[in-house]
Design brief:
This protein is mainly α. It contains five helices and three strands, in the order E-H-H-E-E-H-H-H.
């Protein structure tokens, strides 16, 4: 004997099961994979997608997909993190915060040291440029004095004849 079915949109299913529409869509996909429900696409992109399911599943959220198993009291297998007490977490948080503060202080000290080094480097570059400019001036003065000395060393007859 065939079961009676009901056809609902994702929104109607979500309201009936008191869940979000995304949760209803995922629940419908899982039930389709198990072969319990059917998803009926609309003929037009604007048409709503409908979910065809047995009437018994439409009533209660726990009845969908079969009976739920009780939770085990043992440790879960998989990727879940085991629970720890709050004192351990508080201590871990405090030690982490202390380490962050220590590293922040170290970083600040190194930044200050590098800033001082950068300032000293800029001063040294400025001083080197100033000394280079002064060297050019002194070289020009030296050439001028050499020319004057050369002119002063000429004999009286070379000065008179312009040689």
């Amino acid at each position: 004997m065939a079961e009676e079915t009901v056809s609902l949109t994702y929104r109607e299913l979500a309201e009936r099961l008191a869940i979000t529409t995304d949760a209803a869509r995922m629940k419908a996909r899982r039930a389709v994979q198990k072969g319990r429900w059917r998803i009926i696409e609309g003929n037009h992109p604007n048409d709503p997608v409908r979910v065809e399911m047995p009437l018994t599943d439409a009533g209660s959220p726990n009845a969908i997909g079969g009976e739920r198993k009780g939770r085990s009291t043992g440790e879960r297998k998989g990727r879940t993190i085991p629970r720890t007490d709050t004192d351990t977490l508080a201590l871990a948080l405090q030690s982490t915060q202390a380490r962050i503060a220590e590293l922040t202080d170290q970083l600040t000290a190194e930044k200050d040291q590098h800033r001082d080094t950068a300032v000293e480097l800029a001063k040294a570059i400025t001083k080197a440029e100033f000394l280079d400019a002064e060297l050019v001036i002194r070289m020009a003065e030296l050439e001028q004095l050499q020319e004057e000395l050369k002119a002063a060393r000429r004999s009286w007859w070379q000065r008179m004849t312009g040689r």
